[in-house]
């Protein structure tokens, strides 16, 4: 176990001690005891940076289940390291923020930090695992810990609803992903991502490959809130704000993006990958930004904005995959899309994290997050307003913040789609830049909404629960750091590009490694009058117009039929499936024994008929039959007559006597068929049974003793007849096809010689096969004890007294 | 003979199943009685009928009837008797406690679910 492995599970180890700290150390906020760990991990991971740049990836393995090829292999390359830095860096800030956000006395901090640390370890595990199964284990751990964090305030109904929804959707995706991983491992006989990538070329022609691709993408899309699985994210906003900032903007929702980036070398050769990732990403981008505009809750706006930005990153990753198809081009600008995706991923984590923290501060200091009740907070909360200004303008893609750079790169890559002439992109490709541009206008509108409606305009203090004032400094430090990064990356993007983006892009597109130099130039080149600059100007122009005229056109949102709201589909689907399952169960589990017996007998008939017909098993061989004697004929007639009497008898007494008649006739059959012991037993037992039947009959309740004939039911008759016919057919064909002789010869020869008896049946019962007899005695004993118990034990009556 | 027996057994099974699908508890138990008769006869028939003498060595016969199915049937008779006796007492107790022998009325109470 190396230090690297230890650092991945360190949060889990710390989590074990949290309840102890929480109980024993009352004086200080539990968060202070935790904040050092992510900070330490951040410093530890940043040390890998030069190593990755110079030597490439680092790989360390600890055996877990070596016989199945499942090992805890930690693999640090550019992509994994970028995520690890995001997780630990923003993790530190979020823990710091939560110290001031969550009240020491009112909240159950012990639980909160255990869940948060669990999540942190799970995320680190996801991004640093090379083994698919280990990745899946950590992946599900993120789902579980996210579930716990969303439902942290579990006394609120909305929290529980949001937690359940996110759980159902992400676990659905997680299980699909497991299916995809399993197929991949079957195709390549390995769980290692490195190994699978090295075989990517040879497995891409397998028919199951596309299935694996779609299943893995399902996992990524549900986790990263892509259309139409984005619906859980707005409801996850019921979580405490530090959780929203950490999980639902910076880290967990990017796990899907990580997965897409990680699996790109495996799948990206397929055209469908480009279409799915790029197309779904664009749809999500548009739908998220379109819906964000109509929200009135700060966190809901941010949630939809997260959805839309995740879609943007996803679409860039999809377009970036085109680089693999176009490596013969001199200027490899599709790779630029991948670089842009990674760059925007970092930018989004910084500005969205700070914006969530701002939303939390506003909520904390005013008591509401509703933008209709907020306004004019600029003078009261100048620092918060500044941070919000930086964050929203960066999100809108305005200079000089980092969002501007990544948006320009985004436009560049979308315009480059026009140059593609594969996978029918020449006809539909034009939609890429158009949708991207329209979505950017909406992004601009909600960003402006977010800032101006909260911090400018008239003050509405009468609506607020608290008197608003500036937040404590501790709560402001984390968003200040993030906002500072927004500006820093905006002015000095090359610090980032040279250190981190290069290695990340080369781990997403490893087969294009040799084109690395060209790529470096591309990142640094960010000035010049290109079409994308005019697109941005257009975004600002139309954005301002639409923002100013918002009152006029927002009513269209009310006109969209509710069916298009996917929440409606989700809720109705859940309700209908519950109702349907309930109805189905009530339909066939109706509590009537007769029905269940009919199911059993019909399956019996059906399965056996199928088996006979399928194998053409029916055969009638008349060669080896005994002759029919007059006695047997007479006895048969008696049994037939007695059975019919039982069926049609009006009185139950008649039925009982007819049953006795059948029993005695069977005894006579035994006589004819040379079985004296059976005759004796059958006679005695039939007598006792009939006596018992009469006893039970005698005690029938007085009320129901009116005799009535069994009413005829056609279904019952058909089922009964079917069973009889099947039994006869099977008996006949079994008798006609005997495969070998009986072993009875041995018994006949050795009864006297080895067992010293003359009665073969008795010798078999007590000597050759004495065990059967022993347990048969046990059965009788149990029956006797049971009967005694039933008659003697009267617990219910005693209780009633 | 075996064909005749097979048809007879089929008839026993059919009547047994028809009785087991009825509403009255007593008829269901009568049905199980018929079913075990059918099964016992089936066991015997499948071994071949009327071949050789009674399986007693004292008979000094050239061939004997197969003793194994007879031993099996003997065991089965005793077991089915034990079970039938148990069921009958159960039915008797059910009459006493519930006051009905109609299985459609035996659906438990809402409280006992």
TrEMBL record, chain A:
**Membrane-traversing stretches:** 6-22, 34-52, 72-100, 112-128, 134-154, 166-188, 208-233, 245-261, 273-293, 300-326, 338-362, 374-396, 430-452, 473-492, 533-550, 596-613, 625-649, 656-673, 679-700, 712-732, 773-791
Domain named MrpA C-terminal/MbhD: residues? 637-702
Q: Which GO terms describe its molecular function?
A: antiporter activity
| A cellular component annotation (GO) from this entry | plasma membrane
Q: In terms of domain of life, where is this protein from?
A: Bacteria
InterPro entries recorded: CPA3_Na-H_Antiporter_A (IPR050616), MrpA/MnhA1/PhaAB (IPR005663), MrpA_C/MbhD (IPR025383), MrpA_C/MbhE (IPR046806), ND/Mrp_TM (IPR001750), Proton_antipo_N (IPR001516)
Q: Which residues form the MrpA C-terminal/MbhE domain?
A: 715-792
Q: Topology with regard to the membrane?
A: Multi-pass membrane protein
Which keywords appear in this protein's UniProt record, sorted alphabetically?
A: Antiport, Cell membrane, Hydrogen ion transport, Ion transport, Membrane, Sodium, Sodium transport, Transmembrane, Transmembrane helix, Transport
Query: Which parts of the sequence belong to the NADH:quinone oxidoreductase/Mrp antiporter transmembrane domain?
Result: 129-419
For the biological process aspect of GO, one term held by this record is: proton transmembrane transport
> Main subcellular localization, coarse class?
membrane
**What protein name does the entry list?**
Cation:proton antiporter
Q: Which organism is it from?
A: Lederbergia galactosidilytica
Q: What is the lineage of its organism?
A: Bacteria, Bacillati, Bacillota, Bacilli, Bacillales
Automatic annotation (TrEMBL), chain B:
Per UniProt, which keywords does this protein have?
A: Cell membrane, Membrane, Transmembrane, Transmembrane helix
Q: Where in the cell is it found?
A: Cell membrane
Membrane-crossing residue ranges in chain numbering: 6-21, 28-48, 68-92
Q: Does the keyword Transmembrane apply?
A: yes
- Major subcellular site: membrane
Instruction: Pull one GO CC term from this UniProt entry.
Output: plasma membrane
Membrane topology listed for this record: Multi-pass membrane protein
Question: Which is an annotated Pfam family here?
Answer: Oxidored_q2
Q: Family assignment?
A: Belongs to the CPA3 antiporters (TC 2.A.63) subunit C family.
- This chain belongs to the protein called Monovalent cation/H+ antiporter subunit C
């Amino acid at each position: 176990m190396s230090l690297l492995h230890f650092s991945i599970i360190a949060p889990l180890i710390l989590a074990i001690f949290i309840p102890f700290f929480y109980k024993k150390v009352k004086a200080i906020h539990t968060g202070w005891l935790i904040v050092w760990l992510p900070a330490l991990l951040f410093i530890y991971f940043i040390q890998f940076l030069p190593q990755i740049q110079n030597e490439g990836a680092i790989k360390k393995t600890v055996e877990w289940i070596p016989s199945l090829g499942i090992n805890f292999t930690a693999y640090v390359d550019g992509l994994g390291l970028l995520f690890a830095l995001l997780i630990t860096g923003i993790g530190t800030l979020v823990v710091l923020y939560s110290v001031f956000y969550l009240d020491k006395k009112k909240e159950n901090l012990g639980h909160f930090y255990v869940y948060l640390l669990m999540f942190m370890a799970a995320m680190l595990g996801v991004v640093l695992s090379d083994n698919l199964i280990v990745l899946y284990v950590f992946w599900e751990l993120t789902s579980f810990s996210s579930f716990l964090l969303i439902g942290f305030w579990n006394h609120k109904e909305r929290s529980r609803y949001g937690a359940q929804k996110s759980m159902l959707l992400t676990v659905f995706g997680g299980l699909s992903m497991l299916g995809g991983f399993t197929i991949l491992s079957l195709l390549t006989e390995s769980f290692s991502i490195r190994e699978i990538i090295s075989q990517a070329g040879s497995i891409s022609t397998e028919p199951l490959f596309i299935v694996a691709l779609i299943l893995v993408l399902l996992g990524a899309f549900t986790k990263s809130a892509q259309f139409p699985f984005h619906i859980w994210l707005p409801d996850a906003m019921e979580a405490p704000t530090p959780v929203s900032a950490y999980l639902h903007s910076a880290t967990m929702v990017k796990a899907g993006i990580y997965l897409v980036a990680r699996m790109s070398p495996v799948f990206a050769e397929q055209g469908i990958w480009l279409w799915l990732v790029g197309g779904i990403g664009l749809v999500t981008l548009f739908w998220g930004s379109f819906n964000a505009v109509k929200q009135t809750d700060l966190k809901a706006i941010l949630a939809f904005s997260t959805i839309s930005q995740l879609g943007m990153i996803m679409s860039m990753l999809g377009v970036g995959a085109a680089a693999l198809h176009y490596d013969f081009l001199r200027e490899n600008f599709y790779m630029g899309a991948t670089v842009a995706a990674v760059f925007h991923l970092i930018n989004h984590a910084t500005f969205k994290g700070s914006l969530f923290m701002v939303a939390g501060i506003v909520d904390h200091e005013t008591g509401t997050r509703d933008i209709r009740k907020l306004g004019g907070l600029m003078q009261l909360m100048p620092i918060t307003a500044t941070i919000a200004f930086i964050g929203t303008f960066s999100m809108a893609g305005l200079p000089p913040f980092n969002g501007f750079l990544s948006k320009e790169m985004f436009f560049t890559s979308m315009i480059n789609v026009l140059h593609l002439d594969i996978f029918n992109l020449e006809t539909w490709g034009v939609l890429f830049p158009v949708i991207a541009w329209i979505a950017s206008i909406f992004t601009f509108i909600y960003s402006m909404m977010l800032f101006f409606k909260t911090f400018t305009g008239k003050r509405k203090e009468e609506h607020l629960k608290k008197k608003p004032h500036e937040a404590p400094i501790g709560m402001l430090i984390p968003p200040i750091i993030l906002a500072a990064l927004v500006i820093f990356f905006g002015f000095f993007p090359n610090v980032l590009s040279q250190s981190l983006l290069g290695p990340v892009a080369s781990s997403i597109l490893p087969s294009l490694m040799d084109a690395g130099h060209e790529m470096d130039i591309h990142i640094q080149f960010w000035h010049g009058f290109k079409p994308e600059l005019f697109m941005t100007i257009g975004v600002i122009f139309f954005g301002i117009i639409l923002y100013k005229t918002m009152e006029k056109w927002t009513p269209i949102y009310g006109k969209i039929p509710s069916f298009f709201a996917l929440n409606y589909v989700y809720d109705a689907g859940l309700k209908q499936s519950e109702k349907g399952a309930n109805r189905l169960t009530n339909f066939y589990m109706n509590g009537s024994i007769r029905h269940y017996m009919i199911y059993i007998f019909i399956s019996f008939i059906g399965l056996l008929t199928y088996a006979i017909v399928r194998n053409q098993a029916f055969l009638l061989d008349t060669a080896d039959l005994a002759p029919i004697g007059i006695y047997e004929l007479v006895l048969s007639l008696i049994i037939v007559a007695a059975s019919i009497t039982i069926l049609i008898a009006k009185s139950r007494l008649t039925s009982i006597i007819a049953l006795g008649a059948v029993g005695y006739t069977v005894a006579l059959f035994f006589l004819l068929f040379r079985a004296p012991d059976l005759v004796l037993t059958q006679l005695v037992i039939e007598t006792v049974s009939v006596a018992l039947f009469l006893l039970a009959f005698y005690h029938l309740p007085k009320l129901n003793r009116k005799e009535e004939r069994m009413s005829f039911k056609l279904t019952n008759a058909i089922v009964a007849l079917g069973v009889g016919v099947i039994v006869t057919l099977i008996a006949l064909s079994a008798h006609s096809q005997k495969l070998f002789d009986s072993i009875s010869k041995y018994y006949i020869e050795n009864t006297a010689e080895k067992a010293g008896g003359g009665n073969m049946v008795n010798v078999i019962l007590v000597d050759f096969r004495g065990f059967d007899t022993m347990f048969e005695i046990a059965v009788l004993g149990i029956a006797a004890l049971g009967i005694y118990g039933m008659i003697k034990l009267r617990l219910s009556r005693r209780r009633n007294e | 003979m075996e064909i005749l027996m097979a048809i007879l057994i089929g008839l026993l099974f059919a009547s047994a199943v028809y009785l087991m699908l009825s509403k009255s508890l007593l008829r269901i138990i009568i049905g199980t009685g018929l079913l075990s008769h059918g099964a016992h006869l089936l066991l015997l028939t499948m071994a071949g009928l009327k071949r050789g003498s009674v399986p007693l060595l004292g008979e000094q016969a050239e061939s004997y009837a197969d003793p194994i199915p007879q031993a099996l049937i003997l065991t089965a008779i005793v077991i089915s008797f034990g079970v039938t006796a148990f069921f009958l007492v159960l039915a008797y107790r059910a009459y006493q406690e519930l006051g009905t022998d109609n299985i459609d009325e035996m659906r438990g109470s809402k409280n006992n679910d």
